[in-house]
Write a structure and sequence with these properties.
mainly alpha; Chromosomal Replication Initiator Protein Dnaa, Chain: A; 80% helix; globular
Length: 105
Amino acid sequence: MTNGKNDHMGHHRIIDLVASTFELTPADLIKRSRRPDLSLPRYIAMYLIRKRMNLSLPHIGRLFERDHTSVYYGINRMTAMMAEDHSLTMDVSAIERTLDVEAAA
C-alpha cells in the first residue's frame, strides 16, 4: 500500500479517521496552529502514516504543509508520549484496528 492510488487513498483515510476520532476536520490537522488540541491528533496522523505506509518524512511533510523536520519531531514526540501514556497508546491502537478492519473489507 505504498504506491500510486493506494498511497493517496491510504494517507487520506488515516487523516480522515484521526480527524473524526478527535471531532476535527482533516483541514484542522493541516492548519499551521500549534494548539495542543490540534497538534496531538496531527502527530498521531503523521505517526500512523509513517508506520503504516512508510512514506518519507518530506512526503509526509507535504501532506501536512510542513517541513520534514517538523514531521520528524512529531513522530518522535508521539513515540515518547506513547511510551509514557498507556491511554494514548490504546487510542492509537484503536485507530489502527479500525484501519485494519477497513483494509480487510
